[in-house]
User: What shape does this take?
Amino acid sequence: MAALATPPPRTGLVVVQALRKKHCAECRGGPVALLAPENGAPRCLDCADLGHLVFLPRGDTALTRRAREESSLSAVVVRFNRRKSRYERQGVLVEEAALARAEERCLADAEARRRRRVRDARRRAAEDVRFTDAFAAEIRRLFPACPAERAREIAAHASVRGSGRVGRSAAGRALSEMAVTSAVIASVRHVDTPYDRFLMNGVARHEARRRIAGAVETRLREWRGTG
Assistant: This one.
């Protein structure tokens, strides 16, 4: 009977996932894939008093941790990686009831996280509505002749969360006059002038802005009530 190389010391019991199936040194049963090394000789799980445990593959850290917490007896399963010349963890053996309890805890946590995500999404949505309202109100303060619906459209576009637009910048969140005015100018440029058409026709951006500068300024004066 070939001896089974003992894996490096670990906390708790260790079971080896053999590269080649071997027979148990005690009961001569096998060949078996999982062996518990004792004094350099392989024992099957039943002879090692581990046969009642179930295998939980690695991958879910939370489930593994909780299954080991719930299980009064557990073992780490390792396999030798010839290319790297080292043993690598493959999973754990735990009591079946313990695994079931761990799965229930993880499911409960998943539901709690889902509910938290829903609450957070609702909170962010409410914050976004309040911010858009404040941004639109600031537009109307700076540009009192700007139609209310248009002010709302500009505010909603500028303040989309994660968009990187001026409304989400630090200055935009502070409702600075420069940021609010920049959002209005951008809207006028794209909606009320042929700026986009110039760009599509190959006109350089700076030249396109120069061509529409007068139209933009006229609209801003109009909305300020000074035109």
